[in-house]
Fold:
Amino acid sequence: MGIAPSYTLETEMALPEYNLASARKWDAEDILRQFREQFHIPKVNNREVVYLTGNSLGLQPQDAEAAMNAELEDWARFGVEGHFHARHPWYSYHERLTAGAASLVGARRNEVVMMNQLTSNLHFLLVSFYRPHGKRVKILTEHRPFPSDSYALASHIKFHGLDPKQHLVEVQPREGEHTLRTEDILARIEELGDELALVLFSGVQYYTGQFFDIAAIAAKAHEVGAMAGFDLAHAVGNVPLQLHDWEVDFAVWCTYKYLNSGPGSVGGAFIHGRHIASDLPRFGGWWGHDKKTRFLMGPEFSPMPTAEGWQVSNAPVLNMAIHYLALSQFVHAGMDKLREKSIRLTGYAEKVVQEVGRKYGVHLEVITPADPAQRGCQLSVIAHGKGRALYERLAQEYVSVDWREPNVIRLAPVPMYNSFEDVFRFGQALEKCLSGQ
Ligand SMILES: *Cc1c(COP(=O)(O)O)cnc(C)c1O
Structure:
């Protein structure tokens, strides 16, 4: 497999043929193939599942247990002294994660901190970045954002004594379309103009799989005097990100989806360098206090002069141990190589869905953008006339995909551990389901 120097691949990119031999040949040439062996692949009835739900919960790295056990051992051995004497002292544990996280999101190290969890981080950063005043009160988000984000945004609008029905605005897709056009997003920002306080978009949309043009959205938001924040739950570890250069004001993410760090694992936050030393309001807590004087236990809050100044509580070391390991796999594999494979693997999955749909005369509509630059590894498929029943049949065929109301099957061939053969086997299972066997 030729490794192209950039992410922009020709539309007519080479892909495996839809047969087992071709998929296996591509796997044999995959320079990332050894990573699959580092994960536990779930089994049902003693048979390995075709796991295409890494967008929802990433698989467990086999070394996760050892990584967590090391911290348990240090806890047993040192008790409270582990804060200073553990192999990786707990009082500064989050610092281990900063370099890896910063490289994944394209940030300077002082702009990133791993802390709390996703929605909590969104709340904490909304405290700093959503500050309605005068007529500038509105928040613009995408059509049908992830519910947790909607709830968080609406609750902040209410918290400021305002009405979310009036001030939480969604960009709508055009009639008959599922995804959003960048030009329409930018036009909506311009239209709201000086009424707009904040644009809060996802990086990759959870339902459609659309990868938004983060740089263009941030630039337009700034042009009208608004802030721009992003929820990267489905973007981090999936698509290339350059938050610093794209001038994003803030971003949040979770680590249990593409980042394979385990259910409910630690979240991440990015605050652009230009805001760090500013006097943005924030909720304080002792872990955000300057670490040089944190343990003097003084009454006056003096925040760390980095994103770490937004921390509140001491860090969840046990799940951070797994996150450290998971991040190391990303650093080792290289996001550029993962992206390269991802574009091909997803292109192949799309081709398989289309071939199978044609063969059985079923309209399998991929609503995720066809342009690789506008998507990650997720494909969202509407199986016209089949719906949820098809999803349930696929599960019986040992395929793990997911169903999202009202009518989408999501599948995510993850470049870290999925193979071309997985996608081929998915195609075979899909055929079996559609042929009524
Ligand atoms: C997964 C996801 C969440 C989940 O939030 P938690 O706080 O981690 O439970 C929120 N928002 C988006 C966009 C997501 O994809």
Q: What stands out?
A: The longest strand covers residues 196-202. The longest helix spans residues 335-360. The pocket of pyridoxal-5'-phosphate is lined by residues 117-119, 146, 148-149, 202, 206, 231, 233-234, 254 (CB under 6 Å).
